[in-house]
Amino acid sequence: MERGNHCSNSGASKASTLTEASEEIAHLKRKVQQLETELKRQGSDQQTLPSPITSSPSLHSAFISTGQDHDLGLKRYRDGIQFRPTRSSNETWFGPSSLYFFIQCLSKFLNLQLRKENPVHRLHPVSASYHKFLDVPDAGLLANLSCPWTPPREEVATAGVYLSLIQEDYFLNLYWQTYHTSLFPIVDETQFKNHYQSLLVDGGQGRRPSALVDIMIAMCMQYATSTMPAEIQGVLAEGKDALVAGRWHYWRGQKLLKYELDNPSLSTLQCHLLCAVYICGGSFHNMMNSTVGLAVSTAYMLGLHLDPPPTMSEKDREMRRRLWWAVYLMDSKAGMKLGRPFMLSNSYAMPSLPSDTLDAAVSSGSMFAPIGQNVTWLSYNLHMVQLYIKVRTAYSAFYDQYIYLQEGQALWADHEAQASSAGLLNTHTQSFQEWVDGVPESLKLKRQNNGQPISTDFTSIIFEPFTPPWLQRQRLLLEHTYHHLSINLCRPFISFTLKSPADSIAEELAIRCASHAIMLTMITHQALMESTLFDGWHEAFFCQWNAVMTLVGFVMLFPSSTISNQAKQAIELSISVFDNFGAKFPVAANAAKIVRDLFVKIEVLAKPSDLASNAAIIPQDFEASSSSSVSIDQSLSSHDPFDASEFNLFDMAVDIDFWNSVEALWPEFDNISQF
């Protein structure tokens, strides 16, 4: 008793099973949290007293004084996995909101259904040139970069595979119709074109290097090449893969950016943001996360976290605001996708949202026709930022709600905790609907059969004729992003550790998650079949991969749901989506093969047993395995036609989203067989 432990004869109640013990612990922790909340409330109610009440120590202090773990009052990171991707020598951590975590749990679940021991099996759906995606230029390009203040322009400009000026003009013009209008408007078009003209030398025969110019060219080369059939991509892909296109310009821009680290400008921040998009398109999500971190720190250096002073011109004030909220958007994307903490602090007031008025559009440097209803080409960016604010608020509230968790404890310890989480997330539903209602009609995709825009009514969309492609893409991406973020937010309720009770809010959220995944698949498929708006759009491919793997988990856990048939149809529809993307870049073709094989085997597994009942009874070791460290470089030999290793979806997710690896990008890896 002197050490704070209970004696065996102390009369303390004992739980008869591990499950009961876990539920009792969770109940006690919630009680402690309630008591702390009550203490804080009482303290705030008595702020008018002449001196604070200090006679009763806080619960946190009590833990310390009794020898308990002094960190019990702090939030803990819940769940998550650490694994070593194929061709990587180091482990990486991903949190519970990431697709990697979800698929690893799904893989464990399928292995249990097959009742077989099976280590993680290495699968190889890699592209023909995965090791060449970010090949650095030859040594001649980098040899003389020793001067810390002046980049060697001549050497930087001549080595490598670069475009002619007329080719550069083609890709730069493509930027204004795609990323500029449909990603974020962070570059003044007029100022950029003047800057580009100032770089020309030798009577227009060449130009001086510019990091911003190079990264914009790299992005558009990657995008444009990905719209072409593989057999005609030619020199742009260097005979390898569409995502290789532009890497020489990317690396040249990276070398130039190093000279701006201690003297950043708005252009430096623009480069970091666009670099993050480029390398995310190449599936380097850890590099993307690091680059977003550079953007966040640069934004603080430039003082963009403060609302611009009134002495500054309105045009410059608006550009600084758009840049800050672009950083916010990218930080939100990276944090929620990878399940990692946000790097941008929400603890302080932020600058005003960027304006989308006609005056702001006119002074933006770009000339696009007004859309009407007081809507301009800048309105898309404003509503996209507002969507991320609402989703990030709900995300933070959901994952911060329980601050007391033991090491290795899963997201929910019992149905009471799950119901509480579901109720909390459900309270944000109204704010999402308010966002939908606030989107102007001119930015919404119309639906057939009087369907409701930005909804999950499963009606087909309508592409209006005589509408500029940039506006069609804005409408498409606005709804596409809404469904994608809703999938990620609701996916924890497709849970492999605790089956949601029938007719509960948790089950409703699981169905809602699947509904958004179905709708996203329908929209993506229709966009590819009836337009070119999503051709080569890498984010649409990754969102589709995210949606279909979510649907696979849903049909396994909810085979009798009212939308299970639509979910299966959407899985089959996604194969057509991947086939379409796969004609341009091999990793999508590999995704199609994975989903084909997976769908057939899921149908076979669904016949002999009732998975709904099996899912409700998860062995005690499942929870522990879901947060274990995982290595991909393992294999399993078996002659069973339904070998459990074939169902390891964790391997599949890693190979799709980590088909490239920084450690394997160097020229000596030339003899890799093509898939």
UniProtKB/TrEMBL annotation:
UniProt-listed InterPro entries: Fungal_SecMet_Regulators, XnlR_reg_dom
What's a GO cellular component annotated to this UniProt protein?
nucleus
Q: Which GO terms describe its biological process?
A: DNA-templated transcription; positive regulation of transcription from RNA polymerase II promoter by galactose
Record region (Disordered):
1-20
**Xylanolytic transcriptional activator regulatory domain ranges (all copies):** 288-360
- UniProt-recorded Gene Ontology molecular function terms: DNA-binding transcription factor activity, RNA polymerase II-specific; RNA polymerase II cis-regulatory region sequence-specific DNA binding; zinc ion binding
Which CDD domains does the record match to this protein?
fungal_TF_MHR
Recorded superkingdom: Eukaryota
Q: Which UniProt keywords apply?
A: Nucleus, Transcription, Transcription regulation
Keyword Glycosyltransferase listed: no
The record, for PANTHER family, names: REGULATORY PROTEIN GAL4, TRANSCRIPTION FACTOR ASQA
Please report the name of this protein according to its UniProt entry: Xylanolytic transcriptional activator regulatory domain-containing protein
- Naturally occurring in which organism (per UniProt): Penicillium cosmopolitanum
